[in-house]
Amino acid sequence: MASRGPAGSHPISAEPLSRSIFRKFLLMLCSLLTALYVFYCLAERCQPLSGPVAGVPGLRVPPGPRELALWPAAAQRKRLLQLRQRRRVWPPRPREGSYEEPDTPGLVVGPGGSGAGSSVAEAPPGTLALLLDEGSKQLPQAIIIGVKKGGTRALLEFLRVHPDVRAVGAEPHFFDRSYHKGLAWYRDLMPRTLEGQITMEKTPSYFVTREAPARISAMSKDTKLIVVVRDPVTRAISDYTQTLSKRPDIPTFESLTFRNRSAGLIDTSWSAIQIGLYAKHLEPWLRHFPLGQMLFVSGERLVSDPAGELGRVQDFLGLKRIITDKHFYFNQTKGFPCLKKAEGSSKPHCLGKTKGRAHPAIAREVLRRLREFYRPFNLKFYQMTGRDFGWDG
Ligand SMILES: *[C@@H]1O[C@H](CO)[C@@H](O)[C@H](O)[C@H]1NC(C)=O
Ligand SMILES: *[C@@H]1O[C@H](CO)[C@@H](O)[C@H](O)[C@H]1NC(C)=O
């Protein structure tokens, strides 16, 4: 427009003043908004720091009026978490059995590689350590102890979405196979954690290992134990299917199931059958741990309602319920829930293609006989755990 036209010099001389005031005002507004935003982020980040973590043994809970007192630490923590999430390689999908987490040098290098990290592992997770993104290695406060083919991998992968969970990718097999290597070796396998984060591992064979309850209790009697269980008949078939995929020459499921088919005598020494006797395996655990320190996750519900089951697990671990419905979608082809996308990745993340294999067809009579066999053990297990898993409905 002709604003600078014949209107004269008056408005022209006045303009720079109002502009500079406007500019200052804008600057102040921006600063204010930035400050507000920073405080908003801090408040959001600070809340899960205390409270929920209190239930987890061995974790320090910051004292006092936390939002303000802790803000430098919280800001660092948030930044580090973001860094970590960006660095996480998704999807970390190597072959089954040789699963390794990229940021767990102890596992990749093996027992020999423990030297480099050990000095840092002793460092306290103080401000400097936080700034340097070190953290420290801790013995696990929670372990997924079983069961094989129950859905333990799925549970661990879902749990890892939580920013306060750090877990070993591979199965350490410490309390069954490598106990002689000592706790220092075990701890060195663990990922570094920041204050308030929970260290976890999963090794499904612990549940059926006689020595495991006493050994884990000797490490810490406060260890939280998670058992993913699934209908023992389906589990046995799934177990057999996995073996069959590696060794196609093994006998049929039926011939391995029965000691004497015509007498209907089931071979309880076959591991595929034996692992499903949950009540029997649970007994020694309850001699070392109170029932309240164990959580039994339904492998079936982990598939049909992953968010619901994850809610129970997060509560049990004293974590804020961060993993919810919106993290999952159901893949009809696979018949399995998938994570929509992992933090720091734009790709959806389903379980490896070895999961959800098609099971061989088993004669109905064999299934009936197996269900009959497992029923008393299942009922005993429901009684012991206080939860009816619905396998005999
Ligand atoms: C299987 O059981 C049947 C009936 O009890 C018996 O006659 C037979 O000898 C048994 N076979 C074996 C190999 O034990
Ligand atoms: C569902 O799973 C199938 C088989 O693994 C895969 O090919 C497909 O891409 C998946 N679809 C989605 C939407 O994830």
Helix content: 40-55%
Shape: elongated
Number of distinct helices:
16
Structural class: alpha/beta
Could you name the ranges where pLDDT drops below 50 across 5 or more consecutive residues? 1-9, 44-72, 85-125
The tally of beta strands, per DSSP, is: 11
Query: Taking Cα atoms only, what radius of gyration do you get, to the nearest Å?
Result: 27 Å
Mean pLDDT: 78
Proportion of strand residues = 5-15%
Bound molecules: 2-acetamido-2-deoxy-beta-D-glucopyranose
Gap between N and C termini: 82 Å
Give the topology string: H per helix, E per strand.
HHHHHHEEHEHEEHEHHEEHHEHHEEH
The spatial strand order of the largest sheet comes to 3-5-2-6-9
Largest sheet: 5 strands, parallel
Binding site for 3'-phosphoadenylyl sulfate: 149-153, 230, 238, 355-359
Keywords: Disulfide bond, Glycoprotein, Golgi apparatus, Membrane, Signal-anchor, Transferase, Transmembrane, Transmembrane helix
Organism: Nannospalax galili
Family: Belongs to the sulfotransferase 1 family.
Describe this structure in words.
- The chain has helices at about 10-45, 65-70, 70-85, 105-110, 115-120, 125-130, 150-160, 180-190, 210-220, 230-245, 255, 270-275, 280-285, 300-305, 305-315, 365-385, and strands spanning about 135, 140-145, 165, 190-195, 200, 225-230, 260, 265, 295-300, 330, 335-340.
- The longest helix is centred in the N-terminal third of the chain and has 37 residues, at about 10-45.
- The protein has a five-stranded parallel beta sheet. The protein has a two-stranded antiparallel sheet with strand order 1-4. A two-stranded antiparallel sheet has the order 7-8.
- It contains 16 helices and eleven strands.
- The protein is α/β, with parallel strands linked by helices and about 400 residues long.
- One 2-acetamido-2-deoxy-beta-D-glucopyranose binds near residues 333, 338, 350 and 353.
- Belongs to the sulfotransferase 1 family.
- It is a single-pass type II membrane protein.
